[in-house]
Write a structure and sequence with these properties.
The protein has five helices and no strands. The protein is mainly α.
Length: about 100
């Protein structure tokens, strides 16, 4: 594996995995009050653009990494914006034992 490929692979993994703890914490706690909706709206917009950029170039590594980040950050944003009862319903669906 070339150095650039290794760096890109680890960067993609780190970016993708970085949203998982926040998403899981929201599912477990059902709390989003300390999360910035503006920050996540901007993050979702950025990942949307990065994914579109990957599509335009036909670069699957860019598409896959940013597409997964888009899904995770989009989930966090949606959970932030949902009213409490709907947030509870989604979280209960994903983690019924909480």
């Amino acid at each position: 594996m070339q150095l650039a490929t290794a760096i890109g692979t680890f960067a993609a993994l780190a970016s993708t995995v970085s949203f998982t703890p926040q998403a899981w914490k929201i599912i477990k706690s059902r709390k989003t009050s300390d999360i910035s909706a503006g920050m996540y709206a901007l993050t979702v917009a950025a990942f949307t653009l990065w994914t579109a950029y990957g599509v335009a170039l036909g670069q699957w590594p860019i598409i896959a990494a940013n597409g997964i980040c888009l899904l995770l950050s989009g989930f966090i944003l949606v959970m932030k914006l949902l009213p409490r009862p709907k947030k509870e319903k989604v979280a209960d669906m994903l983690d019924p034992d909480a």
